[in-house]
Amino acid sequence: MTDIANLQDELLAAIGAADTTEALEAVRISALGKQGSVSALLKTMGAMSPDERQIQGPVINGLRETVSNALAAKKSELENDALNARLATEQLDMTLPPTAALNGSVHPVSQVMDELAEIFADMGFAVAEGPEIEDQWHNFTALNMPETHPARAMHDTFYMQAAGEEEARLLRTHTSPVQIRTMTSQEPPIRIIAPGRVYRSDSDATHTPMFHQIEGLVIDRGIHLGHLKWTLETFLKAFFERDELTIRLRPSYFPFTEPSAEVDVSFSMENGKRILGGTGGWMELLGSGMVHPKVISACGLDPDVYQGFAFGVGVDRLAMLKYGMDDLRAFFDGDLRWLKHYGFGALDVPTLSGGVSA
Amino acid sequence: MKFPLSWLKAHLHTDADADTVADKLNRIGLEVEEIDNPAEKLSAFRIAKILTAAPHPQADKLQILTVDAGGELLQVVCGAPNARAAMLGVFGPAGAVVPANGMVLKVAAIRGVESNGMMCSVAELELGDDHDGIIELPDDAPVGEVYAQWAGLDDPVIDVSITPNRQDCMGVRGIARDLAAAGLGTLRPLHEVYHMDTLQPIAGDGPAPVVATHDPDGCPAFFAQAVSGVVNGASPPWMRDRLRAIGQKPISALVDITNFISIDLGRPLHVYDRAKLSGPLVARKATQGENVLALNGKTYTLDNSMTVIADDIMVHDIGGIMGGEHSGVSESTKDVLIECAYFTPEHIARTGQKLTLTSDARQRFERGVDPAFLDDGLAIATKLVLDICGGQASAIARAGSPPVAPRNISYDPDHCQRLGGIAVSAEDQRNILERLGFSVTSDWRVTPPSWRRDVEGSADLVEEVVRMVGLDNIPSTPLPRTDGVAKPTATAMQKIERKVRRTAAARGLNEAINWSFLPEKEAAAFGGGHWSLANPISEDMKVMRPSLLPGLLSAAQRNMNRGASSVRLFEIGRRYLPDSEKLTAAFVLSGDKATRDWANGRATKFNAFDAKAEIEALLSATGVAVETLMVMGEAGAHYHPGQSATLRMGPKNILAAFGALHPVTAKAFDLDGPVMAAEIFLDAIPVRKSTGFMRAAFTPPALQAVTRDFAFLVAADVASGDLVRAIKGCDKVNIVAVRLFDLFAGQGVAEGQKSLAVEVTLQPLDKSYGDEELKAISDRVITAAAKLGGVLRG
Lengths: 358, 794
What we know:
The complex is a heterodimer.
Chain A: H1 3-17, H2 21-32, H3 37-44, H4 50-88, H5 108-122, E1 126-127, E2 133-134, H6 136-139, H7 150-153, E3 170-171, H8 177-185, E4 190-199, E5 210-220, H9 225-240, E6 247-254, E7 257-270, E8 273-276, E9 281-291, H10 293-298, E10 307-314, H11 315-323, H12 336-342
Parallel strand pairs in A: 1-4
Antiparallel strand pairs in A: 2-3, 4-5, 5-10, 6-7, 7-8, 7-9, 9-10
Helix pairs in contact in A: 1-4, 2-4, 3-4, 5-11
Chain B: E1 2-4, H1 5-11, E2 12-13, H2 18-27, E3 31-36, E4 46-55, E5 63-68, E6 74-78, E7 88-93, E8 108-110, E9 113-115, E10 117-119, H3 147-150, E11 157-161, H4 172-181, E12 186-187, H5 190-193, E13 211-213, E14 221-228, H6 237-245, H7 253-265, E15 270-273, E16 281-285, E17 291-293, E18 299-301, E19 307-310, E20 315-318, E21 322-323, E22 335-342, H8 345-355, H9 360-367, H10 374-389, E23 392-400, E24 409-410, H11 415-420, H12 426-435, E25 439-440, E26 445-447, H13 458-469, H14 492-506, E27 510-511, E28 517-518, H15 520-525, E29 543-544, H16 549-561, E30 566-576, E31 581-594, E32 604-605, H17 608-621, E33 630-632, E34 639-649, E35 653-661, H18 663-668, E36 675-681, E37 706-715, H19 720-730, E38 735-744, E39 753-762, H20 771-786, E40 791-792
Parallel strand pairs in B: 13-16, 27-30
Antiparallel strand pairs in B: 1-11, 2-12, 3-11, 4-5, 4-7, 5-6, 7-10, 8-9, 14-22, 14-23, 15-22, 16-19, 17-18, 19-20, 20-21, 24-26, 25-26, 28-29, 30-31, 31-32, 31-36, 33-34, 34-35, 35-36, 37-39, 37-40, 38-39
EC number (chain A): 6.1.1.20
Subunit structure (chain A): Tetramer of two alpha and two beta subunits.
Family (chain A): Belongs to the class-II aminoacyl-tRNA synthetase family. Phe-tRNA synthetase alpha subunit type 1 subfamily.
């Protein structure tokens, strides 16, 4: 074995034995430093004859390259070990909880109102609004309920303390006065829904003195009961997302519609809850009818030209039927546990493409 | 309106069962609320014979009976004093449920003696009030048979909800008439139902009673007939059974007759004891303040708008609503006057509302009884009195005349298609109307029958046709749809409301819906409510809220009481001001802001800047440039005076108020610790006009922005916001952002001063800044700060 080969073996052994970057650096200096053994060999090449250099050059350069590579490889290995050793000390208990996220929520009534707005927007209905503190003309008289009308007494109305000579105002008992306000302020064709708070002096397990209703109104030429039926079927099927839902119109009476119909929806019992659709029975859901000619006249429109339909339904009730709450009073109690359970996420925005239900 | 099926069948010839009848009633607009068959809950109870009765060895009041109920003989312990051998009664075996109390009968030892069931009383089977002993049946009752079948109790009671327009169906006959028109059975002639040869007035002997009406508005017609020599005993069993079946208590023959006719024919009547009357009976207006003791035992004070029936001395009847106690009939009544009058519905309604007095008579008169039925009604009443109570009828008195003038409606059969959406041939429509009692001329002038006061116009006729044809048969017709994709319909304010709601939820607030009304005291503490309810349900729900905060604070307090540690509640709703209702968003932060935590240590409480963070986020969501708003005071007395503010767009337009709640307010709501609150007055936010969808042109600057920090000493009362605003405004070309990052007072800063440090971001446009430019900008910043007394810290 030549001296060069011996030197290479020695150096590689020393590199292999170095267990710190400092030890490795010492080996590097001993080989490749100014006074190093390999550097010394490289210097001898200047004094060689061309023939000698022809032979010894590749050998010596080969030595230098092998040693350099070995040094680099070892250095990388040592750095890697050091990093691994440091990381090993940085271990965290990844089962620890992060800072708790806040769970905000949208009230079911708001969510359902957004759903209704979305469904009816597709059918060309805008959302209209009106005051909750109403005058008697808008709440009753214009709706064909004169002062002595028996239905007026049946409304359990909250009246305001009268201010001076003025007739006492009241809390609207239904959203129907928005019909009047719409018809007196805009020209047909009219397609609106009017959701909002309504009030009845009534309080028990299934009634609260304040609740929510949504009114629908279509006024145009040539609108008839068949359109009402289609609109309600279409709306209810979309809202409950149940194609098998069927409705039944029963003749009824409301002073502001003629003919009038109460609308029942079919339901079936699943796990002790009423699920809409199916053939288990009928449940009364909403009131509707063709707007009474007297109401149309009261709004300054000609009932021989314009006719249309109106309907009203409880928003809280729609929410209960769709999402399964069974106590109306809880809607207005602000109990965080209830709000978080029955409420909806901020991003549960009803859309036609994503579905109106959350 | 309740009636057993058998009662209906007295008027309607049909084989239909209760379910078929109910289905038809629903289809024609007479809504069935309930069908209740009293026999169903009695199906286990059988007729039984007591064979032996022996004393109980352990109890004086008990007997041991041997009972034959059709099967093997049973031993029964019984406490009824009337139980005795050979008597027939009603037996409930083990397993039967006692209707009165829901108890399930069991085989059990009573004082050491086994008992295999129960002999029942009338009260236990809910067939009456008699508790005194067990039911005694005649000797020929069939032992072992189901009692209810034998007793004729298998007669379902149908409860129909009558809408206010259908006064004609406030009597069983009217319902039968509607069913017959709808094809369910045929109507029996009325005189047959009452076993009369014809429906003619009963010509009596002797002078007619003297009656008059001096109030033709309130009481246009007052018919009467007297019957003398009556015996007012119990009414016959068939009448008592029918009244009991609908839950009415039989009283005496005369009272039962009027009640029966009211239910059967929807025709209220009144019977006076003539011995208690002085002089003629007159329908007149009451005098102001006149009193009457009514049959319900209450005294009513009348006013001069109310119609009464009075004699020379006193009021005997609140006309059409309730009779007076003084001339009411009793067992000793011998001579009676039967009143059959017509009272004007509007008058009845007003009087009833003023007196808050309801009665079966009011319900019927208020809706309007058949004005053409006075003679018939009187004839039937007199006939029943004569049949049941005996006596001698007088001639008939007729004062005034009822409003029988027929209405005449011109009708176009095409209206049915135009309004009802269903094609029905003219001939079919004519048949339907005629079956309902309408008369139709060849040129389609339609006259409603006298009992259909509700039918006024063409639309009503369409309703009659479609309810008989069946609403189910109307084809669904799609509303015409406009071309293309549905257009947006939400208004700008509706969109703002939606954004605020969902932003709040996204930021971790929970939406509540609180009552619109408050206790007076809470309203007063938040600016005072303008609107108070005249008839609140309770004092806690009296005043329309001037602010959303009291409701939220009460809800927060309820949650804290339930053990919640952190409450973030919001509401979007109206506050009620004198001139309008304003849409408002509000929130309350109470309890812990952050719970104790392994990473962050102890729980932290909310502070006013948490409220500010939410308010800024919510306002930003509405499109308001929050950084341009003025931060001013006067948030309201319910806030901490030093830790609250208003955000204004211009000095007058307050968009929001927020801050820490005043400790006194928090205490009033029983809330501990710091509570933050805020209200955004959504109505004050200017609705931006749409300027199209195009954004302002923008290219990200090629050169990097640079930041410079400045620290100023200012007087302690200088608002940091003013300093930031002043610096921002001093060089609008170069300065794009100013952010306050340090606030310090204390060691190293003189008393009465504070140090504010800001980071100023500069954006070079076409070339990088040179030293001179930077110095010039810096000088402008320092000058601006100096105007507020700021001194650059070395």
